[in-house]
Amino acid sequence: MAIPTEWTIDHTCGHTETRDLTNRPADRRAGFAEWLRTQPCTACWETARSAERAKERAAEGKAVEEWANLHQMPVLHGTARMVPWATRCRHQLLSDAYTALVMEGDTTEAEWEAVEEAARSVDYAGWWLDQRKADPSDIPELLEAATYEN
Q1: Model pLDDT, residue 149
Q2: DSSP letters along the chain, please?
Q3: How far is CA 116 from CA 2, 13, 15, 93, 106, in A?
Q4: Neighbours of 44 (CB within 10 A)
Q5: Residue 130 pLDDT greater than 60, yes or no
Q6: Contact at 8 Å (CB) between 23 and 6?
Q7: pTM
């Protein structure tokens, strides 16, 4: 008798799915099917995960906003999709640069103030997105060379 490849799973959320388990070795299908029965279905899991990620994003956005206010960073301008992403990128870049240059490097707090002042002058979201993969220790040089058109 052949080991089944399709299993009907009654999930904890109350939904039933037929799952194709051909990608699992035959001797592991039954155990995996049992484990699936202890989980919500794919749609419910994705819904829960989306809600969880939305909460995480909101908390992160609030922290980034508080940081921007504390450091007197300007509101960025760009498209509706660019601005929140670029605001997070700016926060991450400057936080990482502070760690690399001041906490782990030889940059003084006074020198760092000049870097922050230069960062305040770049209010175009696209510039921050373009730098998102830059090495944090390069941020002062990149800010000094910053050119963009409003």
Answers
A1: 54
A2: -PPPSEEEEE-TTS-EEEEE-TTS-GGGHHHHHHHHTTS--HHHHHHHHHHHHHHHHHHHHHHHHHHHHHTTPPPPBS-TTHHHHHHHHHHHHHHHHHIIIIISSS--HHHHHHHHHHHHT--BHHHHHHTTTS-GGGHHHHHHT-----
A3: 67, 50, 53, 11, 16
A4: 15
A5: yes
A6: no
A7: 0.69
Tokens of 76: 């960025």
Tally of CB atoms within 10 A around 21: 19
Rounded to the nearest angstrom, the gap between the alpha carbon of residue 53 and the centroid of all alpha carbons in its chain is 10
Q: Which residues pair with 10 in a beta bridge?
A: 16
Residue carrying the six token digits 């921050």: 128
- What type of residue is 112? W
Residue at 97: amino acid letter: A
